[in-house]
Amino acid sequence: MHRLFRSASRDAWMGRLSMKMFRWVNETVNRNLRTIEMVGVLMRVFSFSLVSWLGPNSPFLFVWSFNTVDAIMLSWCSILRKDKAYTILNVFWIAVGVIGIVRASGFIDP
User: Fold this and answer.
1) Sequence ranges of the domains in the chain
2) CA angle at residue 16 from 12 to 21, to 5 degrees?
3) pTM of the full predicted structure?
4) What is the pLDDT of residues 53-73, one digit of tens each?
5) Collapsed DSSP state (helix, strand, coil) of residue 107
6) Pairwise CA distance, residues 93 & 97, whole Å
7) How far, CA to CA in Å, does 34 sit from each of 62, 69, 73, 82?
8) CA dihedral 30, 32, 89, 93 (to 10 degrees)
């Protein structure tokens, strides 16, 4: 019983720590929202430009990974802004990116 109580106490402490970290990250993103959005947009432009220029010789795993990171950044910003349309669009791009990463890494053949 004592061990269970200690575990529950530790879990509660970890939960509070996780929530503090989440709030800190949200505050940081809120303070730098425009910059983070601009970086995310430039990342997306860069990744699609790379595919446009290199075509079939593109490093697709890198492109999909890069594109998924920018989709996460832009989704977070649009969620904080409460912009439903861009949230849906960027969450969709996260899903597309995950599928692209799985395919580019060779786990699934086309």
Assistant:
1) 1-31, 33-110
2) 145
3) 0.79
4) 998 898 989 999 999 999 999
5) coil
6) 6
7) 25, 17, 11, 14
8) -120
